[in-house]
């Protein structure tokens, strides 16, 4: 870690201006930023503390949807009564993320911006080659330890998994990232690595996440987040699924379905093929299992992460069937 | 220092509750009447200090002029350091010293823990020849920690890299070096195996595993002239003090190690390591105290975890499952330049009766830090092999896994050919099976389920030898009637403060809350290593002896001193109870200890006791406390001494996801007499919890291109969380074992983990029909 200057922003505009300075980085809960600074991955010259900004930690929910301020804590959102009832998958995803201590510190804006857990990305002293950290330097992961790496959305330049849980739920329900006045669909906010894995988000220097909104929908109201991992708690997903469902009046025919995958792709992964295959169909185990295989269309493994290709559709199927059970 | 003054205040266990719940659990330890007597359920006396943060750990000491050292580690696994460019680091703000192999002090090589005299070659804690990734190659000392970190990143090391042998599977690794002392043979094992009607043979692997104590390692070193004080978490103050003394060529007495609290060691804190030499060297060169805190990632390479192991176990049996032959071959990895033997045949040779046996072991050199001790070194992986293999045999023969263990019960030590001192393993099987409900088990794999969850029940046994040594303790009876115990032994959470207070309280006849136990300072009465579950037996014996001598002096004074109120009584003896002295028949006066000492004009009574043989020399004593050369074999004399246990475990395996969750554990354990059942139960449970992590989660993952551990942090090296641990029921089936220790206890701390991993693997097989022989049992192995 090297010396940096510390600025406490007292308005959103001041924060944005400061964030536009070369070498500046926003500091919210700090659970990603400080961690990566200790690893030598981020070396901010200016740390712009936004935690004192007023009015950015609100959570409001009405019939149109939810509006969550960028500084709302993960634990506050997870525990919010209206989020729990109208967006159960969002609350579930947050509860199953990180640990209690981290959830109490970490913010929603910071959460979206968390970086990959690729061990090579996190160890610059030993692995100088990392296209995400140093464009053009190569990828240390390919050919190395890849158990946690992505099988979807990878490129020759980078196969790092996007590790977050919340964003997986958000992408399923068409949430919107508010960058002040500019709004970006969450699915567009996260970028595929392609040839430029260093560019992860559709956010420009001097921009800041101010809020996230999630439109209300029947599917969001009947949703779940299923996270599968070796350890029961405090571990990133081996594979996860955010699923929301709406039935026709018969209570069995699927009218609307939302499916997104976590832990297996380079960005929060919306599985529209599964959704389309099941819309208008009766919710039956065999149909659901077959359709869930579409979730991993085009998947490519790198050896040790092959199991994710097996696992992901099963997680999707289980989550969809679970939503059916509570009909 | 006040931090040492741990008073045994009662918290939740008051007098008289020591039997709470014990009889139902078959606790056969001789139930003491008072919580504070030996055998009572006194709560940890150091608990409040730890919970409230009052307990100061080694690197938390505040010293004037403290400077901070940060290590620079190798980024290659094999090769030579060509050059180190320190210019930028030297010029960095606050930097006091940049240490490289070329500018340090000349240190001596020190005696090893076995007492082997060292070669007369210098010891350099910073490597020129790199033998593993993460090795210390340089260090930076600065005014502040942050300055040292920043400067360390500026040290430029150039290497000439050579190909590394990355692990046991590396084609360059070869078969390794046969370790002849590990060879055990009787009968004709190969022939008997070949002729056996039922045979199983399989390979069992365990990966690199790490101790991951909550408190990472580190120290503060401070020289005053040629006197060195080291604050460092330590499982062996006198052993480490000796190492520091020999490195720097000063007398043993000149080194003081202070370590009142230890945040877990699990085998990793018994030795002084290279970073300790670096810090002490820097402190000497700078004439200032130096703090060096090992970072969490560095705890994976600054010293070694458990070596990766490979075993092949072949069992030949008759049609009823009676073992005719065991053929066992083991391999563990060691480093290129150090030797670690993880004794893989240790359980294999004693668990079951067999007329024919063969076990051999090789050690393979790879480019890793020299492995070290991790809870039950040897017994732990050994049990994974034999206890998995006998389970496979049970299915092959078609009998219950518990029944096959009873059918092959070893009535005496098959290897040493001696009777067991005590072996309550049959009782453990019975008590565990009863409490678990084993008789309701459906024998077929995949025959028990709950929705998507396949349910499996597994059993496995475990054992650990009773390691014995001689101990020393100082006991004082002070003017206020309180008792003080001093020992340079330590408490890393296992309960030394508490059980020594109980021992002294019982012997002298005072409430335990009037006993102050002082540990963790090498100026106190000497002590050998706290490891191998030996400390409780050694130290209760020593404190018992010293306290008895102090009591004898007290009673002697009371009887014979002309100013004693008992002088006129002409009694032969007196009794001391609850801090008061009286004649046995109750005639005559009754005074408190304080009153007696006041009337005879004594400020204190002091007795040093040790359990060394009477004719021991000063050199014998020094050896006893600073090496393990004088430790007594567990099979010395007429008996073979071991602790035993049986684990019954239920797992739930999600059939789609392959995830394994342990849903029930019942373990019955024989640790002989328990000095404090509450603490023993906690230790057993701690071992079982570590065993669950070992079975399902823990694995140091090596990048095979770079020979480097890539999950060197607690987010990626997974240990069990609370959510992974169900309620654990432990049942004590021990009886006092007079051959094992002065007060009848055997070992507690190492035992609990032994056998947990195979019990889980066996349960997973019962649940799924899949036999996983490679730890950990992660989801992709079952999906
Ligand atoms: C050990 C560990 C385990 C974890 N496990 C999980 C898990 O299981 N699931 C999961 O989802 N997450 C997990 N996390 C990640 C955790 O959720 C994130 O670290 C956290 O949400 C980040 O929020 P923060 O407020 O602390 O962000 P910070 O660390 O303050 O910031 C993170 C990044 O976002 C930027 N930033 C912050 N706020 C804004 C803003 N308003 N606009 C634009 N940029 C901004 C910062 O500049 C920085 O680059 C884990 C983290 C750790 C350390
Ligand atoms: S996978 Fe991506 S983040 Fe990981 S080393 Fe390769 S380029 Fe870097």
Automatic annotation (TrEMBL), chain A:
<dbReference type="InterPro" id="IPR036683">
    <property type="entry name" value="CO_DH_flav_C_dom_sf"/>
</dbReference>
<keyword id="KW-0274">FAD</keyword>
<dbReference type="GO" id="GO:0016491">
    <property type="term" value="F:oxidoreductase activity"/>
</dbReference>
<dbReference type="GO" id="GO:0071949">
    <property type="term" value="F:FAD binding"/>
</dbReference>
<dbReference type="InterPro" id="IPR002346">
    <property type="entry name" value="Mopterin_DH_FAD-bd"/>
</dbReference>
<dbReference type="Pfam" id="PF03450">
    <property type="entry name" value="CO_deh_flav_C"/>
</dbReference>
<dbReference type="InterPro" id="IPR016167">
    <property type="entry name" value="FAD-bd_PCMH_sub1"/>
</dbReference>
<dbReference type="InterPro" id="IPR016166">
    <property type="entry name" value="FAD-bd_PCMH"/>
</dbReference>
<feature type="domain" description="FAD-binding PCMH-type">
    <location>
        <begin position="1"/>
        <end position="219"/>
    </location>
</feature>
<dbReference type="InterPro" id="IPR051312">
    <property type="entry name" value="Diverse_Substr_Oxidored"/>
</dbReference>
<dbReference type="Pfam" id="PF00941">
    <property type="entry name" value="FAD_binding_5"/>
</dbReference>
<dbReference type="InterPro" id="IPR005107">
    <property type="entry name" value="CO_DH_flav_C"/>
</dbReference>
<protein>
    <submittedName>
        <fullName>FAD-binding molybdopterin dehydrogenase</fullName>
    </submittedName>
</protein>
<dbReference type="InterPro" id="IPR036318">
    <property type="entry name" value="FAD-bd_PCMH-like_sf"/>
</dbReference>
<dbReference type="InterPro" id="IPR016169">
    <property type="entry name" value="FAD-bd_PCMH_sub2"/>
</dbReference>
<keyword id="KW-0285">Flavoprotein</keyword>
């Amino acid at each position: 870690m090297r010396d940096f200057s510390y600025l406490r922003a007292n308005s959103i505009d001041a924060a944005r201006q400061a964030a536009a300075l070369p070498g500046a980085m926003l500091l919210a809960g700090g659970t990603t930023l400080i961690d990566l600074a200790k690893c030598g991955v981020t070396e901010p010259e200016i740390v712009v503390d936004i935690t004192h900004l007023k009015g950015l930690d609100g959570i409001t929910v009405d019939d149109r949807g939810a509006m969550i301020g960028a500084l709302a804590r993960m634990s506050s959102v997870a525990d919010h009564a209206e989020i729990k009832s109208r967006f159960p998958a969002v609350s579930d995803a947050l509860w199953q993320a990180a640990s209690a201590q981290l959830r109490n510190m970490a913010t929603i804006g910071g959460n979206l911006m968390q970086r990959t857990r690729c061990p090579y990305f996190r160890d610059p002293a030993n692995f100088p080659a990392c296209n995400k950290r140093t464009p053009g330097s190569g990828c240390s992961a390919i050919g190395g330890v890849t158990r946690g790496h992505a099988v979807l959305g990878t490129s020759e330049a980078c196969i790092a998994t996007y590790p977050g849980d919340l964003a997986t739920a958000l992408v399923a329900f068409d949430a919107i990232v508010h960058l002040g006045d500019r709004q970006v669909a969450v699915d567009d906010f996260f970028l595929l690595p392609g040839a430029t894995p260093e560019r992860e988000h559709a956010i420009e220097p001097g921009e800041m996440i101010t809020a996230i909104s999630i439109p209300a929908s029947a599917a969001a109201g009947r949703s779940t987040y299923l996270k599968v991992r070796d350890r029961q708690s405090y571990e990133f997903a081996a594979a996860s699924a955010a699923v929301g469902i709406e039935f026709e009046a018969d209570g069995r025919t699927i009218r609307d379905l939302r499916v997104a995958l976590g832990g297996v792709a380079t960005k929060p992964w919306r599985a529209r093929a599964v959704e389309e295959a099941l819309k208008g169909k009766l919710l039956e185990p065999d149909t659901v299992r077959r359709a869930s295989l579409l979730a991993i269309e085009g998947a490519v493994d790198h050896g040790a992460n092959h199991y994710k290709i097996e696992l992901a559709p099963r997680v999707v199927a289980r989550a969809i069937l679970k939503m059916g059970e509570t009909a | 220092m006040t931090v040492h003054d741990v008073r045994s205040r009662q918290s939740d266990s008051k007098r008289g509750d020591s039997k709470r719940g014990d009889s139902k659990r078959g606790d056969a330890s001789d139930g003491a009447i008072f919580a504070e007597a030996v055998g009572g359920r006194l709560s940890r006396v150091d608990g409040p200090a730890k919970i409230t943060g009052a307990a100061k750990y080694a690197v938390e000491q505040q010293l004037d002029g403290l400077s901070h050292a940060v290590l620079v580690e190798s980024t290659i696994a094999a090769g030579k350091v060509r050059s180190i460019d320190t210019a930028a680091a030297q010029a960095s703000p606050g930097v006091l010293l940049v240490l490289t192999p070329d500018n340090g002090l000349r240190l001596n090589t020190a005696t090893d823990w076995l007492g082997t005299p060292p070669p007369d070659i210098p010891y350099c804690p910073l490597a020129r020849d790199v033998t593993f990734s993460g090795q210390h190659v340089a260090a930076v000392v600065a005014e502040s920690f942050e300055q040292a970190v920043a400067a360390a990143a500026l040290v430029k090391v150039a290497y000439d890299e050579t190909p590394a042998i990355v692990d046991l599977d590396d084609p360059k690794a070869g078969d390794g070096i046969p370790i002849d002392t590990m060879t055990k043979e009787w009968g004709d094992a190969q022939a008997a195996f070949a002729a056996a009607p039922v045979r199983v043979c399989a390979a069992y692997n365990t990966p690199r595993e790490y101790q991951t104590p909550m408190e990472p390692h580190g120290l503060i070193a401070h020289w005053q002239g040629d006197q060195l004080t080291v604050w460092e978490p330590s499982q062996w103050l006198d052993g480490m003090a000796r190492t520091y003394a020999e490195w720097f060529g000063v007398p043993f007495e000149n080194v003081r190690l202070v370590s009142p609290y230890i945040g877990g060691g699990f085998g990793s804190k018994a030795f002084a390591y290279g970073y300790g030499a670096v810090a002490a060297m820097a402190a000497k060169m700078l004439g200032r105290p130096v703090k060096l805190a090992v970072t969490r990632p560095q705890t994976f390479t600054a010293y070694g975890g458990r070596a990766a192991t490979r075993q092949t176990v072949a069992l030949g049996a008759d049609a009823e499952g009676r073992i005719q032959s065991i053929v066992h071959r083991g391999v563990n990895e060691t480093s290129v330049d150090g030797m670690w033997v993880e004794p893989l045949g240790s359980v294999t040779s004693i668990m079951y009766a067999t007329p024919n046996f063969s076990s051999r072991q090789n050690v393979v050199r790879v480019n890793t830090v020299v492995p070290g001790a991790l809870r039950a070194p040897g017994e732990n992986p050994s049990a994974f092999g034999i206890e998995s293999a006998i389970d496979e045999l049970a299915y092959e023969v078609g009998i219950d896994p518990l029944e096959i263990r009873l059918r092959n019960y070893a009535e005496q030590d098959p290897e040493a050919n001696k009777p067991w001192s005590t072996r309550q393993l049959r009782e453990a099987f019975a008590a565990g099976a009863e409490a678990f409900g084993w008789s309701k088990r459906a024998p077929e794999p995949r025959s028990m389920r709950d929705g998507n969850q396949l349910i499996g029940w597994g059993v496995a046994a475990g054992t650990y030898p009773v390691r014995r040594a001689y101990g020393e303790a100082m006991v004082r009876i002070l003017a206020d009637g309180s008792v003080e115990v001093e020992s340079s032994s330590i408490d890393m959470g296992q309960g030394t403060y508490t059980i020594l207070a109980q021992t002294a309280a019982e012997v002298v006849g005072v409430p335990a809350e009037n006993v102050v136990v002082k540990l963790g300072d090498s100026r106190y009465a000497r002590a050998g290593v706290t490891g191998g579950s030996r400390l409780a037996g050694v130290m209760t014996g020593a404190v018992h002896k010293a306290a008895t001598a102090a009591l004898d002096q007290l009673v002697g004074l009371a009887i014979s001193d002309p100013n004693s109120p008992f002088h006129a009584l002409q009694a032969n003896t007196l009794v001391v109870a609850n801090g008061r002295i009286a004649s046995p028949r109750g005639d005559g006066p009754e005074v408190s200890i304080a009153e007696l000492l006041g009337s005879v004009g004594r400020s204190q009574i002091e007795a040093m006791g040790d359990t060394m043989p009477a004719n021991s020399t000063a050199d014998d004593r020094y050896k006893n406390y600073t090496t393990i050369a004088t430790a007594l074999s567990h099979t010395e004399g007429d008996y073979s001494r071991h602790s035993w246990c049986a684990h019954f475990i239920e797992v739930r395996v999600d059939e789609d996801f392959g995830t394994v969750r342990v849903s029930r554990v019942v373990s019955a354990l024989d640790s002989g007499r328990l000095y404090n059942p509450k603490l023993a139960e906690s230790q057993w449970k701690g071992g079982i919890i570590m065993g669950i992590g070992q079975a399902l989660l823990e694995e140091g993952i090596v990048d095979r291109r770079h020979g480097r551990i890539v999950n060197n942090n607690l987010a990626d090296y997974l240990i069990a969380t609370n959510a992974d641990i169900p309620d654990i029921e432990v049942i004590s089936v021990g009886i006092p074992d007079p051959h094992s220790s002065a007060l009848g206890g055997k070992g507690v701390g190492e035992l609990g983990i032994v056998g947990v991993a195979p019990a889980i693997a066996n349960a997973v097989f019962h649940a799924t029909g899949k036999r996983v022989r490679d730890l950990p049992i992660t989801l992709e192995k079952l999906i």
